[in-house]
Design goal:
heterodimer, A: alpha+beta, Alpha-Beta Plaits, four-stranded antiparallel β-sheet, two-stranded antiparallel ribbon, flat, B: 393 residues, mainly alpha
Chain lengths: 115, 393
C-alpha cells in the first residue's frame, strides 16, 4: 500500500459568494466522502483561507523574513487536504475523484518514502 | 519479452536491464551452444530469472512482490506462454498510456517499450535530441514508479476511457508518420508501420472494442494510398490526382470489413466514423465519382461525437466539394474565428484552393502565402509554392 496526499485547490471567491445552502451541501459532501472512504483515509483537514497564511523564508544573508500571504498567489488556492491510503495511483484517483471540489480541483501526490 | 519481465519486477527500468543482460548472455552463449529453437522464449526465461535474482536482493517489502511472482513464474508449460505474453503486453500498453502521463511521454514510452525502438530511434521520430528523449523517458518511468501507476488492465468501468487514451496515442503515432509535421519527407514510414503494428496488436488483444476496429480500419484505409501520394519527382499528389489503380486493394478490403464491424456499434465512435470517411474515398472509382454528400453526412456525425476545430475544417472542405467552391468558402468563413485553427496551415490552404477555383486570384495568392508561412513539411511547401507560381503567371 502507498499513501497519497489529495490537495484540494479551489477558487476562494466561490466560497465567499456561495449561499448558505451551497455551503451546507459542500459540507455534507465532505461528510459523505469521509463515511464512504473511511477505511482508506489517514487524515484530512480544511485550511483557513489563504489570506490567513504567513510565509517564512530566508534572504541571501540567511536572515528570516516573515511575510503576510501564501507562498504563491494563484487563482485556485490550497484549501484542504486528505491523506489517502491506496494500492496504486488508479485506486487513489478513484477515491480522490469523489472529493467535493466544485470551485476547483484536486491534485494527487504520492507520499515519498525514504528507505 | 520486456512486458513479461516488467510483470516480474514491477519496475520498467529494472526490467529493461534484465532484458539487456539476457541479450548479452545470448551473445556469449549462442555461438557456443547454437541458437535455441525457441530463441524468444529462451531470452524471456533468462530475463525473468535475472529479474527474480534482482528481486531477491531487494528490500523486504519488495520481497513480497517476488514471492507472488515466483509462484507463477516457475517453469511455465511452453504452450501457455503465448496468451501470457499477450496479457503482459496489454498491461504494459495501459501503463505506458496512463492519463497521468503527458501525451508526449505516453507516445515515447509506447514506442520505446512496446515497439522496441531504441531511445535514439524514438528521438529521431520526434526530431529531438537523444538526450532530450532519454530525459523524457526517464521522467516517465520515474513517475510510473513514484506514483505507483499500476501494471494491469483497467477495470470494466474505467476501460472505455482508458482505451481512448491508448487509441489517441496510437493515432498520434500514425498521423505523425502519415504526414510528417516537419522535415523533408512527406511520410515517416517507420512511424506508420509502428502504428499499424500497435493497432493490430490492440485488435488482437481487445477483439470486442469497436473503436479499436475503427482505428485499425482508419490506418489501413488511409495508408492504402501510400504508393500514390507523391509523383516520381517527389511532388505531392492530391487525392484527386492519385492513381487509384495503385492503391493497396488488400489493405482496403481488410479496412472496409473492419469499418462495417465497427459501425455496428451504436453510437458510432470517432475512429469508426473517420474510417468510414476513408472507406468512401477508398471505394470511389474516381475523384469525380466520390459520394460527397455521404462524406458531409459522416463529418456531421463525427462533429457531433468529437467536436474539434480540425473536424469542422474538414467538414467545410467536404461541403465545398459537394456543393461547389462558394459554399465551401462560406463554410470555411464560418469557422474563421476558431482561435485554435489560426496558424493551422490547412485552413489557409483550403481557403486558397476555393478562392482559386472562384478565380479570386489576389485573395487566393494571399491565402497561399499565409499557408506557406505556417507549413514546415518540405513536400507540402513545394506544392503550395507551385500553386502560388501558377497564380502569378
Amino acid at each position: 500500500m502507498s499513501e497519497y496526499l489529495a490537495l484540494i485547490y479551489e477558487d476562494e471567491a466561490g466560497f465567499e459568494t456561495a449561499s448558505e445552502e451551497t455551503l451546507n451541501r459542500i459540507m455534507m459532501g465532505h461528510n459523505e466522502f469521509g463515511e464512504q472512504n473511511g477505511a482508506a483515509l489517514r487524515g484530512g483537514n480544511a485550511l483557513q483561507p489563504s489570506m490567513s497564511a504567513t510565509s517564512l523564508r530566508r534572504d541571501a544573508s540567511g536572515k528570516l523574513v516573515v511575510t503576510d500571504g501564501p507562498f504563491a498567489e494563484t487563482k485556485e488556492a490550497l484549501g484542504g487536504y486528505y491523506l489517502i491510503e491506496a494500492s496504486d495511483l488508479d485506486q487513489a484517483i478513484a477515491i480522490a475523484s469523489q472529493i467535493p471540489a466544485e470551485f476547483g480541483g484536486v491534485e494527487v501526490r504520492p507520499i515519498r518514502v525514504f528507505d | 519479452m520486456l512486458a513479461a519481465t516488467v510483470r516480474v519486477v514491477g519496475d520498467i527500468g529494472v526490467a529493461e536491464e534484465c532484458v539487456q543482460e539476457a541479450y548479452a548472455k545470448a551473445l556469449s552463449a549462442w555461438p557456443v551452444s547454437g541458437v535455441p529453437t525457441r530463441a524468444g522464449a529462451w531470452l524471456t526465461t533468462v530475463a525473468r530469472r535475472r529479474a527474480i535474482d534482482t528481486l531477491r536482493r531487494q528490500s523486504s517489502q519488495e520481497r513480497l512482490f517476488a514471492k507472488y511472482v515466483e509462484e507463477d513464474v516457475a517453469p511455465l508449460p511452453e504452450e501457455s506462454e503465448l496468451p501470457l505474453i499477450h496479457d503482459d503486453r496489454l498491461r504494459l500498453i495501459f501503463t505506458c498510456c496512463h492519463p497521468a502521463l503527458s501525451l508526449d511521454t505516453q507516445v515515447a514510452l509506447t514506442l520505446r517499450l512496446l515497439c522496441g525502438l531504441s531511445t535514439a530511434e524514438v528521438a529521431r521520430a520526434f526530431l529531438v535530441s537523444e538526450s532530450t528523449m532519454a530525459a523524457r523517458l526517464t521522467r516517465g518511468k520515474k513517475k510510473i514508479a513514484a506514483t505507483h501507476i499500476p501494471y494491469r488492465v483497467p477495470s470494466t468501468d474505467e476501460l472505455p476511457s482508458r482505451v481512448d487514451a491508448v487509441l489517441a496515442t496510437v493515432h498520434l503515432v500514425f498521423t505523425t508518420g502519415h504526414t510528417a509535421p516537419i522535415g523533408t519527407d512527406l511520410m515517416r514510414r517507420d512511424l506508420v508501420e509502428r502504428a499499424l503494428q500497435l493497432a493490430r496488436m490492440l485488435r488482437e488483444l481487445l477483439p470486442d472494442s469497436a473503436e479499436v476496429a475503427g482505428l485499425l480500419a482508419l490506418i489501413l484505409l488511409t495508408d492504402a494510398r501510400r504508393g500514390t501520394r507523391i509523383d516520381l519527382d517527389g511532388a505531392l499528389l492530391l487525392l484527386s490526382e492519385q492513381d487509384r489503380g495503385r492503391w493497396d486493394r488488400s489493405a482496403i478490403e481488410e479496412g472496409a470489413l473492419l469499418v462495417r464491424l465497427a459501425l455496428r456499434h451504436r453510437p458510432a465512435g470517432r475512429y469508426a466514423l473517420m474510417a468510414a470517411i476513408a472507406a468512401v474515398h477508398a471505394e470511389a472509382s474516381s475523384w469525380e465519382a466520390t459520394d460527397w454528400d455521404e462524406i458531409v453526412g459522416l463529418y456531421d456525425l463525427l462533429l457531433a461525437t468529437w467536436p474539434s476545430p480540425v473536424v469542422a475544417l474538414n467538414r467545410a472542405v467536404a461541403v465545398g466539394l459537394a456543393e461547389g467552391p462558394a459554399a465551401g468558402l462560406a463554410a470555411l468563413d464560418e469557422l474563421g474565428d476558431t482561435r485554435q485553427l489560426s496558424g493551422y496551415n490547412y485552413l489557409a490552404s483550403a481557403r486558397a484552393d476555393f478562392l482559386r477555383r472562384l478565380n479570386r486570384r489576389d485573395e487566393a495568392r494571399r491565402a497561399y502565402v499565409e499557408a506557406l508561412e505556417s507549413c514546415d513539411n518540405d513536400v507540402e511547401r513545394a506544392y503550395l509554392r507551385r500553386r502560388l507560381e501558377e497564380l502569378e503567371q
